[in-house]
Design a protein that fits this description.
The structure is a single chain. By secondary structure, the protein is an alpha+beta fold. Helix content is about 40%, strand content about 10%. It contains 16 helices and eleven strands. The protein has a six-stranded antiparallel beta sheet, covered by helices on one side. Strands 7-9-10 form a three-stranded antiparallel beta sheet. A two-stranded antiparallel sheet has the order 8-11. The relative contact order is 0.06.
Length: about 525
């Protein structure tokens, strides 16, 4: 059973050193049974990464080395936004084996559970639907996680996207199709149990053969815990947890925690996922996710109906149709203000400053209630319509004049005097004023470039980075563009882009790397 990572502040011999001439180690952020985990800088891109390094003492253990290699291969099979991305895998000059992964800035689900419970059901669905989406991709690639728990689910708050999930740590993942397993002894001995007992499926606790439905049981345990703040079972030992998963039916969340707010549909789905027999659980991650989303859809419809009923029954107010918003979904209630006139009428018609006063209740039966009978109302209506037509005509004329002036005098960007480095007008000298920059477009194009680079599409990556540069020239883009030109043996272009990078980021840690590359 692999130990959980714990935050460690003690100094380490690798801190401050460079691994495989690529990664500058900054700090240790965790330690497990197989090795240590560091935050490092990928020197070529000046980008933070997570570096997992296998313990030197374990390099002679064939089973551990193969397991470490399997983690890299299992994670490298995954290509999903909610799965951690493996960037590199290899062995340093001193023999140290490492895996470089993307760095996720956020909190794990255990941290959120311990500090923010109770969580609204809608948020639980939002979180776990992403986990299931990542598992669906892993299962389709023949990868079973086998150690899913809140500590292995990272949540980050992105701009415009709350609660973005990354599933981590495929350290004991099982590759079930055998297409990339090496020959040699089995990595998991017969009857050997690995995983975390609190979240183990019955078949995993028994040491039996596993399939993807074991991960879905773990998802059920996590949702149970998120909804009621407690695990399905209590025990003081790993053996006790495993035994209860094997032999006991868990109490429904509302029985275990009566004060927890769990819908009936959610409780049914949780108990289905925790079935002892895998055939009684959701059969795929896609099916599990679809059932979760159906609960959310039903909840939104219910909230919308309640809001409409509340609005229609509110005295003195007519319902105004609009879309349901997240505030509505929280079932917020606002009491309508009481009329200062203490009217005994059951409904009150709002008067309009245009249409005139509301007709009296004793209106003659021969008079249409929709017709304005106020003297002079017809003339006022004609004057209002004429004024409206004149205003619209004036607005269109002004818009036409403005458009014509823009066409005759288009805005041309003139670089400030200090923009060029050499005065040659090359793209690497581009330095537009802040108001002409488009950081959103630059971020999108840069991400496309990163994805293409990781796939080995150098020309596509270069095109994307240059497009991002035109939108918003940032130092890290100049660094990446220079690296790609160097990989294409275009050293002069690389030198020019790196000169711009030196100018914009004089204190960068990548300068020694640049000098080393240009000297070759």
């Amino acid at each position: 059973m692999e130990q959980s990572l714990t935050t460690v502040a003690a100094p380490d011999e690798l801190i401050g050193k460079t691994v495989a001439t690529k990664y500058l180690v900054e700090q240790m952020i965790g330690e497990g049974g197989m090795g240590k985990v560091y935050k490092a800088i990928q020197i070529a891109l000046d980008k933070p990464v997570v570096l997992k390094v296998l313990r030197q003492a374990l390099l002679s253990d064939e089973r551990t080395v193969k397991r470490f290699q399997r983690e890299a291969k299992a994670a490298s099979r995954l290509n999903h936004p909610n799965s951690i991305s493996v960037l590199d895998f290899g062995q340093a000059d001193d023999g140290a084996m490492y895996i470089a992964m993307e760095y996720v800035q956020g909190k794990d689900l255990h941290h959120i559970l311990s500090r923010e419970w109770p969580l609204p059901e809608a948020r639980v669905i939002r979180l776990m639907s992403q986990v299931l989406s990542a598992l669906a991709d892993a299962h389709s690639a023949g990868v079973i996680h086998r150690d899913l728990k809140p500590e292995n689910i990272m949540v980050e708050q992105r701009r415009g996207e709350a609660d973005f999930v990354k599933v981590l740590d495929f350290g004991i993942a099982k590759i079930v199709d055998g297409s990339i397993d090496e020959d040699g002894p089995a990595l998991t001995r017969a009857g050997f149990v690995c995983g975390t007992p609190e979240y183990m499926s019955p078949e995993q606790a028994r040491g039996a053969q596993l399939d993807h439905r074991s991960d879905l049981y773990a998802v059920g345990v996590i949702i149970y815990q998120l909804m009621c703040g407690m695990l399905p079972f209590d025990s003081d030992s790993a053996v006790g947890f495993a035994t209860k998963h094997l032999t006991e039916i868990p109490p429904p969340p509302t029985k275990r925690r009566p004060d927890a707010r769990v819908s009936q549909a959610m409780e049914r789905l949780i108990m289905k996922a925790l079935a002892k027999n895998p055939d009684d659980r959701p059969q795929t991650a896609e099916q599990f996710r679809a059932e979760l989303m159906a609960i959310e859809k039903e909840r939104r419809a219910s909230v919308g109906t309640q809001n409409r009923r509340a609005a229609s029954s509110a005295p003195g107010l007519a319902p105004v149709p609009r879309k349901v918003t997240p505030i509505d979904q929280q079932e917020t209630r606002v009491n309508p203000p009481q009329s200062p006139w203490a009217s005994n009428e059951t409904t009150v018609k709002a008067s309009s400053p245009i249409a005139g006063p509301v007709p009296a209740e004793n209106t003659s039966p021969t008079t249409s209630p929709d017709r304005d009978t106020t003297p002079g109302a017809g003339a006022s209506s004609i004057i209002f319509k004429v004024a409206t037509v004149l205003l619209v005509t004036l607005a269109l004329a002004l818009a036409g004049i403005y458009g014509w002036s823009v066409m005759q005098n288009p805005k041309v960007y003139v670089p400030p005097p200090n923009a060029p480095l050499t005065g040659s007008g090359q793209l690497y000298e581009y330095d537009p004023p802040h108001e002409l920059r488009r950081p959103g477009d630059a971020t999108r194009d840069a991400l496309e470039g990163d994805s293409a680079w990781h796939k080995g599409n150098i020309s596509v990556a270069l095109t994307a980075y240059l497009s991002a540069w035109r939108a918003d020239p940032q130092p890290e883009l100049a660094l990446k563009i220079g690296e790609l030109y160097l990989q294409q043996d275009m050293k002069d272009e690389a030198r020019a882009w790196w000169a711009r990078y030196r100018k914009d980021a004089p204190d960068t840690k990548a300068l020694s790397y640049i000098d080393q590359m240009l000297e070759k």
